[in-house]
Amino acid sequence: MLKTKDLAYSYDKSNWISFPDMSCSAGDSYLILGQSGTGKTTFLHLLSGLLKPMKGDIMIGDRSLSKLSGAELDKFRGKSIGVVFQSAHFISSLNVMDNLRLAQKLSGNVIDDQRIKSLLQTLNLGHKENALTRDLSVGEKQRVAIARAVINKPAILLADEPTSALDDKNCDEVLDLLEKTAKDSNSILMIVTHDNRLKSRFENQIVIS
Amino acid sequence: MNLLKLAWKNITHRPLNLVLSMVLFGLGVGLIILLLLLNSQMKNNFDRNLADIDMVIGAKGSPLQMILCSMYHIDNPTGNITIGEAKPFLNPKHPLIKTNVPLSLGDSYKSHRIVGTNHDILKLYQGKIESGTLWENDFEVTIGKSVAMDLGLDLGDEFQSSHGFDDADDMEHEHGSFKVVGILEPTGSVLDQLILSNLASIWETHDHEAGGHDDHEGHDHSAHAVSNFNLLDYPDKDITSILIQFKSRTNFQALNMPRNINENTDMQAASPAIEINRLYSMIGIGVDALRNLAIIIALVSAFSIFISLFTSLRERKYELALMRVMGASPGKLFFLIILEGIVLAFFGFLVGLIISHVGMEVLASYAKSSYRYSFTGKTFLNAEWMILLVSLAIGFVAAIIPAIQAYKTDIHNTLSK
Fold it and tell me: Is residue B237 domain-resident?
């Protein structure tokens, strides 16, 4: 469960960006729409605990993000939030398997190779376990990034412009995957985008302006 | 997938950087360890060969040369003294002298020195016979273990000596074929490198050479048998030097003896301990210079570790931010970079360890022929643990600034780009 209330952020203490209140429950999917420069990234970083709210609060489950200390927030983020970034980045020195292991380890969970392997299977990446991430195709990279985001069964799966660089066919595939994996791990899916193709697909839409 | 493994993967992911850092670090560490090994083994060698000898008497010249020649068998003799001159010090009843060992040097066989002396020399170095017997009659020799092994000599073998230390054919003596009658147990001292004979064998060789004697046709090889040979009966014969142990090292008269000899006779006396200390202080300057060089290399290599981490961090900024997203605390990133510095330093240390000990083995093969000492790269010093600790500390220090940078990674700004 995710709730935001009176959320606002300012980089210079004079211009405040306010965000709409939300209340989402597990398994829901949301589209967060807005043109460039409207504060989409800020909202994403607030929701993922990378920025601390300056006004208002974010509740995830029964935890209030603004009340967590730095270290608690790091831990909480690792366990409860998965993020798929616009362009996929990995620890370049590690192979696919180790990147996912690291994600488990850093979140404080036990490393579970079975879970990693079955997840890679469902994402059609079973044969890429030992590949270095730089050797993957763009599509494969994005799927590994999705795998990494959901490996710890996060409460919230955030995706930042996951489709902006894709054609219609791949766009649909990625959305399918995101929805499927979010559902499998019972996460709230939030897609931050300015891609209008997605509007028709999601009921719940929040517009930031 | 723990941090150590991640640090290891990060380091090995950039092999060129790794090799550069390790080679630089390894050179610094290797040079320092090599110096320590050389220093300690040389000191050990010198100390063992001091053999509680308190004084050496020989011909006037450089006291250090006399010591190096008579005790370490590195240098050439300063000259000869006659038994007549040295008579008081060869007297077994001298009130202050416990042991006197006369030496007659000047010949060698394949770079191993032939020493004319009596059986007391064995007491100085705790030498024991391993096979055969001790030298007794003229031209019988008992050889040190290293001589036997290096030259492949065995009991009953015969050889011609040559003059001086060189192995030149034209220096070979026509006369006197030495016969091996015994081999000594290894002692770890200079004794291992020597060929021991009685004094008369050396005289015979050289008298013939000078054409002094004509009676060699019928001379009796047992005429100078060590067991009933009284040196003092030959006051005109030459010896090179005398090794002396005092009865008491604190006796005032004994302490003054070297000065008395130097002032009142045509001979010189020197204390090995003093001369060897003088030698240390002379070598010490070179060792200091090398050590400073090694420290500079170590500092440069610390700097290379720093640069290597620093530049890699710029490339890895996004990765570090990602790790934060995945739940890593800033402290963990700090620790990761520190770990990378320490792991780099550790492997640099290993490279240095290999360089130094292999280098020592290579040096040993050269040193054996020119110094008559066996060095080895197979022994380790306690100081090497210290160097390991210092190396790790250098890795730590070199990683601090990059680690602080990693600690301060601004996730929001990095990921917004």
Answer: yes
